[in-house]
């Protein structure tokens, strides 16, 4: 059930990412896993007719596998494409939002291929998937992704390296998608290189505590992983 496990979709950094790139998203809009359980962010309101005179209520469609608030149509994106196409009346979309969904899909390659086929020429998908996150079921939790893995799921799309990023569980904290993806190094030099002098001092203090056997459960690692989501926008060639 796509959105029953979407505590992540309530992530404020996903919402701020959409708001900051609002003008880059064009309708019609399709939200995958749109069921609102009360803790999820309301993406539909950002693109409502009252906010944009060019957008009508029918230009925004929310789909899920269970009925409920925010769900316009029941659609299983791992079904044969002909069934999906019929359920959506043959529509093609300028923007598809798929936030914290793919990790719960048993067939992510099939789902990714079907979403790509639902895009209009020049349309784009905003994908947000966990790189490092706690296990969260509903009904289960199968996958974690790297940015290179996302590109394999969507080989026909072109991704914008300037827009793509990694966000942590802290409000407003974003990082580039590079070799240090998700890492918090237990190294003063690493934090100093990034311009974090206070964190460098903190790491030195942790090392000192480790030398006397305190907090060794933490400082015994070379690095730890921050809870982090990969945010990528892929565009279908026109």
Structural class: alpha/beta
Distance between the termini: 33 Å
For the sheet with most strands, the description reads: 9 strands, mixed
> Averaging pLDDT over every residue, what do you get?
84
Strand fraction: 15-25%
Radius of gyration (CA) equals: 20 Å
* Poorly predicted tracts of residues: 1-10
- The tally of beta strands, per DSSP, is 11
Q: Secondary-structure element sequence?
A: HEEEHEHEHEEEEHHHEE
Instruction: Enumerate how many helices there are, as a single number.
Output: 7
Which term fits the overall shape? elongated
Quaternary organisation: single chain
- Helix share, percent: 10-25%
Describe, in plain words, how this protein is organized in 3D.
The chain is α/β, with parallel strands linked by helices and 238 residues long. Helix content is 25%, strand content 23%. The chain has 7 helices and 11 strands. The chain has helices at residues 12-20, 81-87, 108-118, 147-153, 188-193, 197-211, 216-219, and strands at 29-32, 60-64, 73-74, 93-99, 119-132, 158-159, 165-168, 174-175, 183-185, 223-225, 228-235. Strands 1, 2, 3, 4, 5, 6, 7, 8 and 11 form a 9-stranded mixed β-sheet that branches. α3 (108-118) links the parallel β4 and β5. The longest helix has 15 residues, at 197-211. It starts with 11 loop residues before the first helix and ends with a strand. The model is unreliable at 1-10 (pLDDT under 50).
